[in-house]
Amino acid sequence: MRTCLAVKDVTKSFPGVIANNQVNFDVREGEIHAILGENGAGKSTLVKVIYGLYKPDSGSIRLYDRELNFASPRQAIQAGIGMVHQHFMLIPALTVAENVVLGGEPGRIHYRRQENIELVRRLAKQYHLEIDPSAKVADLTVGLQQRVEILKVFYRKAKLLILDEPTAMLTPQEVEELILVMERLRSEGIPIIFISHKLDEVQRISDRVTVMRAGKTVNTVETKSTTPQELANAMVGREVVLHVSKPPQLPGEPVLEVDELVVSSGGSESVKRVSFQVRRGEIFGLAGIDGNGQSELVEAITGLRSCKSGSIHFLGRDITSLSVRRRTKAGIAYIPQDRQLVGLIVDFELTENFILRDFYKAPFARLGQMQKKPIEDYATRLSEEFDVRPRQIHALARNLSGGNQQKVILAREVARNPELLIAAQPTRGLDVGAIQFIHNKLLELRTAGKAILLVSLELDEIMSLSDRIGVVHDGRLMAILPSEQVTREQLGLLMTGVDLEREG
Amino acid sequence: MLWDALTRPDLWASTLAMATPIALPALGGTFSERSGVVNIAMEGIMLIGAFFGVLFAYYTNSAWLGLVGALLMGAFISALFAYVTVNLGADQVIVGMGVNIFAAGLTAFLLNTIFGYGGTPRETPALPNLTIPGINHLPFVGPILGSQNVVVYLMLMLVIGSHYFLFHTNLGLRIRAVGENPQAADTAGLNVKGLRYLGVIIGGMLSSLGGVYLALGLLNSFEVNMSGGRGYIALAAMIFGKWTPFGSLGAALLFGFAMALSMALQGGGVSSNIIQMLPYALTILALTGLVGRSTAPAADGVPYNPHN
Amino acid sequence: MGKTIEGLLTPLVAIVIAVLIGAGVMLVTGHNPLTAYGALFTGAFGSAVDFSNTLASAVPLILSGLGVAIAFKAGLFNIGAEGQYWIGSMAAVWIGYSVSGLPPLLHISLAILVAMLAAGLWAGIVPGLAKAMVGAHEVITTMMMSYIAIFLSHYMLENGPMMQPGFTPQSPVILPSATLGKLMERTQLSWGLAIAVGACLIVYWLLYKTTLGYRLRAVGLNARAANYAGINVPFHLVLALFISGMLAGLAGAVQMLGVQHRLYDSFSSGYGFTAIVVALLANNNPFGVILASIFFAALSTGGQSMQLVSGVPANLTDVISGIIIFLVASKDIGQIVQKRWRKSQTLAPVKEA
User: Fold this and answer.
1) Cβ distance A467 to A283 under 8 Å?
2) Do A98 and B306 touch (CB under 8 A)?
């Protein structure tokens, strides 16, 4: 098989960080080549360099012996490289057809609406990616939106396809469909590069895999001749314990009771009569594909959103209509999933962020006046306890890395000694060290008898940390299962709405 | 008195005339915001258009050349605005306000420096009023549509043209794409900055034309701050009109009606000052009561930084 | 300390560049920039009388500038300071001439209080509630309210309820008991200066030392996070506009009670827009507002003398104001770029890919 794309000694750096350090790999015709690595390994940067979004500092990229030197994606597209991004580059307000032809519209001036719709319909049929061309992208499911992305690539007659974390937002069924499409493309000779941090996918789909770590390529192997453990070690650079072990624990009485909760947002019900409890000394994991009501559920429990009906009880008290402030005071802590948008004020100093939830009370404020020394002491203490770097309490929060920002939020919420901690995507986008720190902290709280509600998109995290797991699909709680007994396949099925009892 | 005023075509002809200097900047704002750039500088650009229109008209002795000169100046100021906001990523509202203040000062200063303290020369040529034969003789509609200043007709044609451009051409699609999701547009190979420049400059030229209408169409002179807040009312018209050309025209007609009505009712017992408040009060109502929250283009007001 | 110097750099550079551009314009139109600027400077600061008058002109700018600054801190753009100034003026003058028999301290306090309340409501009720409840952009609403306020004052004075008997559209003179005393004879400088400086101190204390200030700043920086912190965002938006209006109204009150002593029928005081430039130039810092106000006041008082001496029209100073805003807003970028660069220095070695 001919080599289609050859990447040699490519280096790309940004101020303060070398994202790609002498990267080497090649792609052959008709193969599916995976790039494996954790968050921050440099995978996305590499493909963005190939696609022309970034210019490499040094090194060469050859496409069929032609040296590439792209200044913009436009040129990459013309050369036949197509990319489907992890976060879709679609325009929700426009239709499928408009999104597909954008930038390469037929005709000179007039926009040929009907013709374009037909064109897209035919294209979709050709690649078995059935879709309605006149639908507004905003109205489509995530799986369908991905189809639009792929159609865009083929509209431009791509000869090489790059997929960046393609299965991140898909249901297991949609993943199957995507795999079929990829295999069909491979059989037509189109090489595919796909980026992933999920070992099982890489094992299943790829022909070869290149592992990246901290900006460098570690090695490239035939997928068939390696094992998940080997790949994981290469990814992280050391022996990795693939599962966190938790001490056994007997949970106590319920701290949080959610009863027949209904939450509506944007005209429809996003949480449909959900009931569950979280008990002292347990971690209750809420699993589910993004967008199935978890965010709304958590917002309703924390008071950031009102609920239509149902009730929420905390420590025996009905808190259903209490304000955020009141619930916080009652002992509920919340680590929001959008740390920079909600959890912190990035232009505030660390001192001001540490007291974000308690700024109005003693000892931080007396009679409406802020008390400088108690605030500074508090910030210093928490920074040390939670190893926040750099250790400058007057630095602005925006100058901290993601991991340290998350530690500030974690420190703040945990230091308030809450009875219930709600953590939404607490380790998203963080490096391994930070992830381990946070996992350990959560387990510490569990041992100390606190109740924790963990919401995460990472099944590994949910399965290893939780005592019980609830699966959310389309706003409903499909089932609540003890974590030792459940398998990934069961969770996957539940996440797509399959009722296990009925399936037998 | 009110009924009397409503049934005479004068009021409606006046409505159309008063709507024009609101519709034009509203149309301009639509272009700018559709491409993703919040533009509150319409007031200032109108003044620029008005002053330079008079300046060039006087010195070339041709109102049409004055119009062209005004459009060029409007484009120039808009390009500057675009550079600071699109290339440098500055706060669009603050810079827009800066343009307003700068334009007010500059036009007043140049007025005094070039023309002295007696106002602009009386001999300044003005843009002609057109009479359309045929329409002119229709009952009631005749005086309204058949006999207006040429800029009014220009405005109507521009509204139709803008609608076609934005919604039925490839370039219009690209401009809208850039205003909704610049990153997606970038990866589709579009020139985000270039398209935004285009939107802002077209917008500036339209606003400038609005100023030209005030200075060379309705009158033939320039007065300090003659735009009188119309640039801000145009903003409301644009929002009310949901960022579409026809919507902007509709809203502008509404505001024009309020202005025409306030003029027609003057001397009828209610203080003229109270009546002059009408258009401004109506603008507030439009923003709060009747419109509620309308959706701007999604990336409106957010500078696009590819390395974000 | 480093932050303060950095903060001063942008406005200073902007002023220098604007002054240079102004010189360029003067040269092009056939004037001598040195004599012109010289006349400007001596006109503003040349003698004790001139200096006092400059300070007196700065007073309403300081107060309305504070108002605009505090709105900015809460993330709001109050461009209706002009109208709020008029409302405050009207209220103060009315109390000033219609209420009698009060000792000066009480009379002045009453006039000021009513002025502040009226102007605060003018900004807080319509623009404030509109923003809080439906998200109506305050740029348009405050501007519209401003025009309405100006027409209202015309209405009051042109054969209206506040016109004094006779033919001139102006209000009656306020009673001596409502007059703010002069700090310097034969100048316009009154005790208003003390009020302005005092307001500065109070605003600084409010913003940085109280929980209310913390809440306003939080809302201005990140409304969603403020909500998460338990802060009632809509309420604080209204409150911010209310306070902002109060300060602009205080500007009007002080100007009426200390300088004009009656309300005249004019179209604009010129303070409304300049207040915005002042706030931006000062980067919304209360003490910076004092400095920026003196600068613009100097431009204004000196401008008259510049026009007399060198023939350069006084509204060149408006041009300079506009250029300054333009530069300050774009210079903002310099700071953002600097911040980004510094941030990347502290990032962990592995970038999030």
Assistant:
1) yes
2) no
Residues of A in contact with C340 (CB under 8 A): 15
Could you tell me if B186 and B1 are in contact, meaning their C-beta atoms sit under 8 angstroms apart? no
Q: What would be the CATH architecture of the domain defined by B2-127+145-290?
A: Orthogonal Bundle (1.10)
Of B173, B298, B307, the CB nearest to A98: B173
Query: Distances from the Cα of B122 to the Cαs of B28, B61, B128, B224, in angstroms?
Result: 30, 12, 16, 16
What pLDDT tens digit does each residue of chain A (504 aa) get? Answer: 788 888 888 888 876 667 788 888 888 888 999 998 766 678 878 888 888 878 888 888 888 878 877 777 778 888 888 888 877 889 988 999 999 999 888 888 888 889 999 999 998 888 777 889 999 998 888 788 888 998 888 888 888 899 988 876 677 777 888 888 888 888 888 899 988 867 777 888 899 999 888 788 888 888 888 877 677 677 766 544 445 667 777 778 899 999 999 998 766 778 889 999 999 999 999 988 777 788 899 999 999 998 999 999 999 899 998 999 999 989 999 999 888 888 899 889 999 999 998 898 888 888 888 999 999 999 999 999 888 888 888 888 888 887 888 889 999 998 988 999 999 989 877 777 778 888 989 999 998 989 999 998 777 788 889 999 999 887 888 889 888 888 776 776 677 666 655 443
Give domain limits for chain A: 3-236, 254-331+418-503, 353-416
Q: Quick one: which of A289, A301, A291, A290 has its CA closest to A263?
A: A301
Identify which of B168, B189, B298 has the shortest CB distance to residue A74: B189
Sheet with strand A268-279: strands edge to edge: A268-279, A254-265, A309-314, A317-318
Q: Does domain C6-332 have CATH number 3.60.21?
A: no
Task: Quote the tokens at residue C306.
Answer: 């510049």
Phi, psi of C74 (to 5 degrees): -90, 10
How close, in Å, is residue B116 to chain C by CA atoms?
9
Which residue is it, tokens 């027409």?
A: C151
Chain B partners of A105 at a C-beta cutoff of 8 Å?
Answer: 170, 173
Instruction: Say how far apart CA A285 and CA A277 lie, in whole Å.
Output: 11
- Are the beta carbons of C217 and A324 separated by less than 8 Å? no
Q: If pLDDT is split at 50, 70 and 90, which confidence band does B296 have?
A: low
Q: Which chains touch C (3 or more CB pairs under 8 A)?
A: A, B
Domain boundaries, chain C: 6-332
CB atoms B171 and A109 under 8 Å: yes
Q: How many CA atoms lie within 13 A of A311 on its CB side?
A: 7
Domain boundaries A3-236, corresponding CATH code: 3.40.50.300
- φ and ψ of C333, to 5 deg: -65, -40
Q: Say yes or no: domain A254-331+418-503 is CATH 3.30.559.30.
A: no
pLDDT of residue A387: 84
Model confidence at B89: pLDDT above 50: yes
CB burial of residue A502 (10 Å; 0-12, 13-18, 19+): exposed
Distance CA A272, CA A265 (A): 11
The pLDDT score that the predictor gives to residue A500 is 59
Q: Where are the beta strands (DSSP E) in A142-234?
A: 160-164, 192-196, 208-213, 216-222
Structural contact between residues A133 and A120, judged by C-beta atoms closer than 8 angstroms: yes
Q: How close A346 comes to chain C (CA, Å)?
A: 8
CA A92 to chain centre: 20
The secondary element (H helix, E strand) that includes residue A256 is strand A254-265
Which secondary-structure segment (H or E) carries A271? Answer: strand A268-279
A18 chain-C contacts, CB cut-off 8 A: 349
Two structure tokens written together for B72? 């060029």
Q: Are C227 and A324 a contacting pair at CB < 8 A?
A: yes
